[in-house]
Design brief:
The structure is a homodimer.
Chain A: H1 5-9, H2 19-27, E1 31-34, H3 46-53, H4 69-81, E2 91-95, H5 96-108, E3 114-118, H6 124-131, E4 135-139, H7 152-158, E5 163-169, H8 181-194, E6 197-201, E7 227-232, E8 244-249, H9 252-264, H10 270-279, H11 286-306, E9 321-325, H12 331-340, E10 347-350, E11 352-353, E12 367-371, H13 376-395
Parallel strand pairs in A: 1-10, 3-4, 3-5, 5-6, 6-7
Antiparallel strand pairs in A: 2-8, 7-8, 9-12, 11-12
Helix pairs in contact in A: 3-10, 4-10, 5-6, 5-9, 11-13
């Protein structure tokens, strides 16, 4: 039987592909410290569960394809607090930020098209871009420069006649890089000058550790036709399992095409929408404690990493990820070995090997992504395990 | 800005495109009887809501990308009762049956490919096929023959070098047509002989009104490489808003490609999976009352329709839809007129105009799909409104 050439070009998730080895390691009695998946351990606000308990309709019906009015209203209020007035038509509720990205790719990309994305990037972007028949044109970065990419010459060097869009994630997954106001403006200018869509994945907006004000690309004027925003409750409210995201744009034609997809899949899960609306009633200072917790974790991970000989890691400004360059030949082999051959007092550690975060062949082979989503003591132990693992791996015959 | 040529070929949902007119009609004080959407009014089993209330984890986490083991186990038990042994790897949980179809289309179709589907068909199939770059090659049917399509010559006439798959929905949406055991075997034979995938959307399996035993294409032997099954809790348990479906196949390569998509969108909503597992604990006779209720409704609608002069409608065997041919020039215009210009004692009626259910240009213009999802008295009133509407529409100057 023949399969789509597009799906054959896609790979399994680097965050999830070592799952079977982890299962085997656990079955063999090992404790695995998971730094591979961005699953926060912060409690989901109880209003989420309460809203679902309070749901009293007897028939669990489809909702409106664009999302329930109560949730759209809450999303608009949230953006109003950032100084952004959105109309109802500017917002479509999606099944996680993932679906928003998938819909956007299907609306604006097709065979032979390119989308500019700084690499390393969130690998699932590649699946969505590939499925649409297009490819990622990466903006190269280096670990030594802290994965910096917001430079006019570098970005413009990637633009050609196939380019349809620039996509940025800020705060960044997997690098933790955050764009300054000036860098955001630069990228916005390039998108406008070149007539490109600008897709901004801002699901980590609150996760900034330098005292920065909350910001969004949608705060800039004159970007109405270009800007497409992806947002989600997953990280903001530690509600990954809700699968509630939004697609925001003032480009009417884009939104009318996106609505076709929303209608084709009928609606987003009803109870999760109701409960997500409740999440947005959390007071604005709800996030303060979470931010402090993550800042502490980042500082722990970075300081521990920088103490490992041969590791390259600049301190990132946001999100809860960082990329690091390791003194190993191949992070994929190293990860597998950590699960099958290594342990320290019964413990081992898991991260996401770097290669799948790159479009350029051969790049990222000695890099890993770390998600610092564990409690302080566990994080410290995990970083110690990484250090011990590197030493043992490089000592083995 | 340029958009994908594929999305430009897709249309808005015929079930949902008159929504703004319905809103306006209601705002003007009209009562609208909705026969346009397959939203059952049957109560969702309370175990659904109870399972969610009992959920005690404090962090709403992502689940496994293929779905939670508890739900996969329940799906396997359900199929075991149909005499079908599924392994864990044969099942992927999806965000509604819709996502299952979307994933399958992306895995097996690409530019220039064709998929054979009897027309009229569920219009959202077209969006998923189109997005994958392929097109629907319809098997023509007629209202006069009760939309019969399970004929070797008719199906084989549609096969060519571009054909990748045959897709059938039984019991059928929008026609209510059900395949007999022999017809199923015929279609299975053709798929196997021609080396085609056979995609079976069986989400209405329980909705059969002639005393038929529950059946599935997966009960046939020797179809392991060809068969792809789409199923869902939406209709079976009146839980459309759960957005929980499954993709079932024993074709290992297909499932490995499908898993890439499942991983890219991370997971299906956690609480809805937990609650859907609870739905499958309903006793096998749970469905008896529902089936009787729908049978009564079907009989009401068919007998009322057959009394309207000029209407063509054969009594269908299953699902809760039927297609009917009306004595009007254009069902789209007629629907709009019913919402804007018609009322009887403040009431009007809404159905899904037929054109979007066809791939062949010009076909279906005088047909409508009716979803008989209202209580008996409301259904009778709705059919009377249809009769009055047809008369008034054809009398207008």
């Amino acid at each position: 039987m023949k399969f789509s050439s597009k799906v054959q070009r896609c790979g399994l998730s680097p965050m999830r592909k070592f799952h079977p080895y982890a299962v085997a390691a656990k079955a063999a009695g090992k404790r695995v410290y998971h730094l591979n998946i961005g699953q926060p351990d912060i409690e989901t606000p109880p209003v989420y569960f309460q809203a679902i308990r309070d749901f009293s309709q007897k028939v669990l019906e489809y909702t409106e394809s664009p999302g329930i009015p109560a949730l759209i209203r809450q999303v608009r209020s949230y953006y109003a607090r950032l100084g952004v007035e959105l109309s109802e038509e500017d917002v479509l509720v999606t099944t996680g930020g993932s679906e928003a990205i998938q819909i956007v790719c299907n609306c604006i990309l097709e065979e032979g098209d390119e989308i500019i994305i700084p690499e390393p990037f969130y690998p699932n972007y590649n699946t969505f871009v590939c499925t649409a028949g297009a490819s990622i044109h990466p903006i190269p970065t280096t670990a030594e420069e802290g994965y910096f990419y917001a430079d006019r010459a570098r970005i413009e060097a990637a633009v050609n006649e196939h380019t349809r869009a620039i996509m940025v994630t800020s705060p960044g997954n997997p690098t933790g890089v955050i764009l300054s106001r000036e860098e955001m403006r630069l990228i916005a200018d390039i998108a406008r000058e070149r007539g490109l869509f600008l897709i901004c994945d801002e699901v980590y907006r609150e996760f900034v550790y330098g005292g920065e004000e909350l910001s969004s690309m949608i705060q800039f004027k004159g970007l109405e036709e270009n800007l497409i925003l992806v947002d989600s409750v997953s990280k903001r409210f530690s509600a990954c399992g809700a699968r509630i995201g939004v697609l925001i744009s003032r480009n009417r034609e884009l939104m009318s095409h996106a609505l076709k997809y929303c209608q084709a899949r009928l609606s987003v899960a009803t109870l999760d929408q109701v409960a997500a609306a409740a999440l947005y009633t959390m007071p604005p200072d709800y996030f303060t404690a979470t931010r402090e917790e993550y800042k502490r974790r980042r500082d722990t991970v970075v300081s521990k990493l920088q103490q490992i000989p041969g590791v390259v890691c600049k301190c990132p400004g946001g999100a809860f990820y960082l990329m690091a360059k390791l003194p190993v030949d191949d992070a994929d082999k190293f990860q597998q070995w950590l699960l099958t051959d290594f342990e320290d007092h019964g413990d081992t550690v898991m991260f996401a090997p770097g290669e799948a975060f790159y479009a350029t062949p051969g790049r990222g082979k000695d890099e890993i992504r770390i998600a610092y989503v564990l409690k302080q003591a566990d994080l410290e132990r995990a970083m110690d395990l990484l250090k011990l693992g590197i030493e043992a791996y490089n000592r083995r015959g």
